[in-house]
Amino acid sequence: MVNIEEITNVTEYEELAKQRLPKMAFDYYASGAEDQWTLKENRTAFERIRFRPRILVDVTNVDMTTTVLGFKISMPIMVAPTAFQRMAHPEGELATARAVSSHGTIMTLSSWATSSVEEVASTGPGIRFFQLYVYKDRNVVAQLVRRAEKAGFKAIALTVDTPRLGRRESDIKNRFVLPGHLTLKNFDGLDLGKMDKSQDSGLATYVAGQIDRSLSWKDVKWLKTITSLPILVKGVITAEDAHIAVEAGAAGIIVSNHGARQLDYVPATISALEEVVQAAAGRVPVFLDGGVRRGTDALKALALGAAGVFIGRPVVFSLAVHGETGVRKVLQMLRDEFEIAMALAGCTKVSEINRSHVETDIDRIRIAARL
Ligand code: GLV
């Protein structure tokens, strides 16, 4: 077992998790759809963005706190929903919930968690959002949303990019299925908690059977009739959909390509961010997930207009290796990196981070065109 003190960045956890987890579990967490072009691009697009730091700013005090949907958090780095966390570690989502609360930031619990909303709530106080998949049976959805509300969840992150599950080829090859001792805990008792083995990814078969392919914008309005919680539309990557999301009453938008697990060859989220931010035009906050592995990535996203970022895979990989302590470590490393990045860019508050702090490919083309 590697000594936690030796780990210096969040990416190291991926290889360590690979050594530790059964192949079926690791592949499920790690893979993207088909050629995995977008999976790679989610990272390389961050690498193409450069900073334009300001110097000789007094950075004795760097304040990373920010406010998301009215909740004050310690940094604009939050935790994305990832399914089946007990496949990574016996304490699963409960360990993640404790780690995230200890860092004063927000956890998003997956609909497909292996711990229920009530169990996660019982870990103690914390600001938590609930990620929602809309099932064909709307009574199931209504019940689940009500339970999340009752358990103190503060927002619904509605996933809108999954009318069908993307083709993750290793899951198909492995005939992925949830280990027998685990269930989709929120659906126990609703007779939807089990995933059967199939000739495909068991999850793809489950989705085909249960998830509503007919989901459309009118359902965002329907969701608003059954809950008073704010709704974040998760999975927007175009200006067109950003406009509609705002009109449909979304309280926020999450620019996401589902960790590159759905449609391959969509742009990296960091490349799509700016057009969504421009379309939202300050009417609702815009968040981003996908490929965030460094504090500098968070700084880039905020400079391009994001109100905050979410991390997914680093949480499950660190959970697999070091449990709750691993997730704490990941959040601490990102916090430390983000603080240094802010200081070196000459920013003392999150509100000071702006578009002038980065230079993108498009900026370089524009500058060259003017010469
Ligand atoms: C779960 O949401 C997945 O995409 O595997």
UniProtKB/TrEMBL annotation:
Localisation: Peroxisome
Cofactor dependence: FMN
Record-annotated FMN hydroxy acid dehydrogenase domain positions: 2-363
Known EC number: 1.1.3.15
GO cellular component: peroxisome
CDD domains per record: alpha_hydroxyacid_oxid_FMN
Enzyme class: oxidoreductase
A molecular function GO annotation: FMN binding
Keywords assigned by UniProt, alphabetized: Flavoprotein, FMN, Glycolate pathway, Oxidoreductase, Peroxisome, Photorespiration
Keyword Amino-acid biosynthesis: no
Residues holding glyoxylate: 28, 133, 168, 261
Main location: other
Gene3D superfamilies in the cross-refs: Aldolase class I (3.20.20.70)
Reaction(s) this enzyme catalyzes, per UniProt: glycolate + O2 = glyoxylate + H2O2
Pathway membership: Photosynthesis; photorespiration; glycine from 2-phosphoglycolate: step 2/3
Residues the record lists as binding FMN: 81-83, 110, 131, 159, 234, 256, 258, 289-293, 312-313
Flavoprotein recorded as keyword: yes
SUPFAM superfamilies per UniProt: FMN-linked oxidoreductases (SSF51395)
Active-site residues, record numbering mapped to chain: 258
GO biological processes: oxidative photosynthetic carbon pathway
Family of this protein: Belongs to the FMN-dependent alpha-hydroxy acid dehydrogenase family.
PANTHER family (UniProt xref): 2-HYDROXYACID OXIDASE 1, S -2-HYDROXY-ACID OXIDASE-RELATED
Name of the molecule in the record: (S)-2-hydroxy-acid oxidase
Organism expressing this protein natively: Selaginella moellendorffii
